[in-house]
Design brief:
Chain lengths: 115, 115
């Protein structure tokens, strides 16, 4: 055992677990972009898909289902006059804005730093 | 063209790009955990590896190199009395705390919401 080894405090491991949990719910390439698209007013499946460069319909479907399970998105089916499916952000999804906002801010600053 | 289609504003596309940039620099399973480990005082390669459950030495090495390029981490080599390599967070890495802090906070709240 190395004398210089500093074990993580219980809290740090808890923090790691929390970051992992958040990455599990929000991670990957697409979920935050879907949230931005919905926030910008897109509601229908193909509208959302068209607004996100590079996403496949299959991936969008998978991501929306996971986001629904996590109460970030609501899927509403209208049947009159025709069947219409819409996705909207939940009020709860607003708890994500500190994360999304911080990421947007950070990227802009980082560009200046590494250029 | 669907009449209901709401095109993204230029700003929303810019925001998507920013989120993508941040995910590119910080994304994946490990980088934020490495930051938490370093912040908790771990400096040497094997200490860092031991503090993060499941990371391989090869992955840690790859991630640390990328983080060095992004000025988040500094690698210092001491040669006296023996060769010793240490990693520390840069002052600049502190700009990440709003993101990491928001993620830690969000996970704790989310657990209550979905249980």
């Amino acid at each position: 055992m190395n004398d210089n080894f500093v074990p993580l405090s219980k809290d740090c491991l808890t923090d790691m677990k929390s970051v992992q949990d958040t990455l599990y719910v929000l991670g990957g390439k697409w979920k935050m972009l879907i949230i931005l698209s919905l926030r910008n007013g897109n509601r229908r499946y193909r509208e959302i898909a068209r607004s996100i460069p590079g996403i496949s319909l299959r991936m969008l479907s998978k991501e929306l289902k996971e986001m629904e399970l996590n109460k970030l998105v609501v899927r509403t089916v209208y049947t009159d006059p025709v069947v219409l499916v819409e996705y909207t952000l939940t009020e709860y999804s607003e708890t994500l804005w500190p994360i999304v906002g911080a990421m947007i801010h950070w990227a802009k600053n980082h560009k200046q730093v590494i250029r």
